[in-house]
Every structure is written in structure tokens, then in C-alpha cells.
């Protein structure tokens, strides 16, 4: 039954999104500074890439997986550099300007979406997570069952969006309790954490 594949895909997408890496930190920081909607849009960027990775895993696009394995060194270096640049930008962000822009409805939602999309895309090794998860959940389908594959991919996207929607909802509940000084520190801490993630990603290439 195809609905079973949708539900299992939803579970995989939800669980894969829970670890609070740089994307999670970025979504929390934006929700606190800008509001729930920019946080959800940022999460949607990550969910879109998760669906893309699920597509590659579900349809068994081995030539893409082989390319990633062969170019893993350079991909991780680029991914780490992207994280460091985003971390520096967050660190230097003025929360007062972000709040003012939000109140004037001048949020750059496309920028929020694309920045997280690129950040998530810079870690294509996550494809292997979906390959392993699909095998564990019995979601490996035959080539002629494309409907089941699309149900899995849709489930992954919905599951990821369920997580980002839940996270931004609870963060937004408490955002009004933060003062400007606290928002300033949140930006600094979030920026440093994302930079650390980026440095760790680059160093892991040499010490793996």
C-alpha cells in the first residue's frame, strides 16, 4: 500500500532533521531575530534538499553517489567553507536591524531559503544516510514502482517540514522574552557554533 511508504518516508524525514547541526542553529537564530515564518522558510530550504537526496537514494542514481564518493574531499572542503562564511555573517549580524526589517516587512525570504538550501546541499554525504535509512525501513523499491518512490520522497519532505515547523513554533513562543542584549549574544554564539562546524568539517577531511 503506497500510503505506508509515505508514512515511513515522513518518519525518515523527521528523524533525519532532528540533529541540531548548523542548519538547526541557523533556523533558531532566524526565528528569534525575524519571526516564525522566516524560520520555517529557512527550514524549507533544508527540507527541499532532503527530498532531493531522498530522490537520488530512492531511484538508485548510482552515478551521482559514485561521483560524491570520488569527490568527497573537495565537497567537504567546500561545505566547510560555506559554513564558515555563513557563521561569520551571523556573527556580524545586527539583531536590531533584523528586527526593524521584520517589522517593516522587508525580510528577504528568498535569501533565507537559498542560504539554507546551499548549506544543506554542501553536505551531499547525507545521501548515504537516506540510503541506510531506506534499507532499514524496508523502503528499497524496484525500478518499476516509481509511485512508491515518489511517496517516499514526498514523505521525507513532509517529515522534514514537520520538524522545522515544530522547532520554529516552540522557539517563536519564547522569542518575545529575549532582550536586545540577549539577541546580540545569541547571534555571536550561533555564529561561532556554525564557524566551528565548518572548521570541523574541513579538518575531518584530513584526519578521516
Structure write-up:
It is built from ten helices and no strands. The chain has one domain (2-207). It is an all-alpha fold. It has helices at 2-17, 22-34, 36-58, 62-70, 72-91, 95-103, 109-121, 126-136, 146-174, 180-207.
In short:
With 208 residues, the chain is mainly α. The protein has helices spanning 2-17, 22-34, 36-58, 62-70, 72-91, 95-103, 109-121, 126-136, 146-174, 180-207. The protein has ten helices and no strands.
The whole-angstrom Rg is 18 Å
- Helix proportion range: over 70%
Percent strand equals: under 5%
Structural class: mainly alpha
First-last Cα distance: 42 Å
Low-pLDDT residue intervals, each spanning 5 or more residues: none
**Multimeric state of these chains?**
single chain
Assign an overall shape: globular
Number of domains: 1
Q: What characterizes the major β-sheet?
A: none
How many E-type strands?
A: 0
Secondary structure tally, helices: 10
Give, in order, the helices and strands.
Answer: HHHHHHHHHH
Mean of all residue-level pLDDT scores: 82
